[in-house]
Amino acid sequence: MIVGGWLPARVAEILPSTEHARILRLTVPDWPGNRPGQHLDIRLTAEDGYQAERSYSIASSGAGTTVELGVDLVPDGEVSPYLTQDMRVGDTLEVKGPLGGYFVWDADDPAPVQLVAGGSGIVPLIAIARARAALVSGAPMRLLYSVRSPADAMFRDEVDRLGTGVLDVTWAYTRSAPPGWAGHVGRLTPGSVAQAVWPPESDALAFVCGPTGFVENAADLLVRSGYDPARVRTERFGGLS
Predict the structure, then answer these.
(1) Start and end of every FAD-binding FR-type domain (predicted)?
(2) For residues 114 and 198, what is the distance between their CA atoms, to the nearest angstrom?
(3) Distance, C-alpha 9 to centroid of its chain
(4) What are the tens digits of pLDDT across the range 52-99?
(5) What is the spatial distance between Cα 150 and Cα 156, in angstroms, rounded to a whole number?
(6) Number of C-alpha atoms within 13 angstroms, CB side, residue 83?
(7) What residues form DSSP beta bridges with 144?
(8) H/E element holding 124?
(9) How far is CA 160 from the centre of its chain?
């Protein structure tokens, strides 16, 4: 479902996620609802009329007029510094969406689901995990979540809660790990991926989201391990935010 025009939105709630990331909950009266994994466009308009637009993944799904976003700071970005540092409850902006029909999960699909997130790439995947948690039964899911350090994990508390029943969660740390960590620290490797994901013979549907370099590496490791490329869906983002 995609709407064609811009919709007025108001910031209803702002929650800290990490030192450099925020959770934004927007009230969008005309929001038509969205599927887990979709995204939207945001448009900000300055007092002098200058406008800036960026795309952001949606952390929520389903019907309703509340839309949740997770925004990580890109220091040299044009939009994310405002969203993560300056925006306040009650501020207004415009959104267009929902957008995208490829990187979405269908709850009627019984195939196992493998989620692979790098940094803020967790945002659309948390929407998928939440949608699964809302069901009495459904496809089994695993999450491989790669972050620089424990403090850089968005939605960490929720991921841990979901990991007690809905998700089989594996953490990966690229720079520093928590005390007592005995696992690998660094980029994903064929071995670390093989230990964390569904085996290729499961015919799992994989969703991989994160920075471009991470997504290319993770998707390549899945395919090299035996995953059918047609079963690996990717969504990536660069540094312009």
Answers:
(1) 4-105
(2) 7
(3) 21
(4) 999 999 999 999 999 999 999 998 889 999 999 999 999 999 999 999
(5) 8
(6) 32
(7) 116, 170
(8) helix 122-133
(9) 15
**Residues forming a β-bridge with 14:** 24
DSSP 146-184: EESSGGG-TTHHHHHHHTTTTEEEEEEESS---TT--S-
CATH number for the domain running over 113-237: 3.40.50.80
Question: Cβ–Cβ contacts within 10 Å for residue 49, how many?
Answer: 6
Phi, psi angle pair for 84, to nearest 5°: -95, -15
- Report pLDDT for 197: 97
- Domain ranges within the chain, ordered by starting residue: 7-99, 113-237
Q: How confident is the model at residue 44 (pLDDT cuts 50, 70, 90)?
A: very high
| Topology annotation, domain 7-99 | Elongation Factor Tu (Ef-tu); domain 3 (2.40.30)
Length of the chain: 241
Residue in this structure with the two tokens 């692979």, named with its chain if needed: 116
Enter the pTM of the model. Answer: 0.95
Phi-psi category of residue 189: left, alpha or beta, with phi > 0 → left and psi -120 to 50 → alpha: beta
Separation of alpha carbons 207 and 9, rounded Å: 28
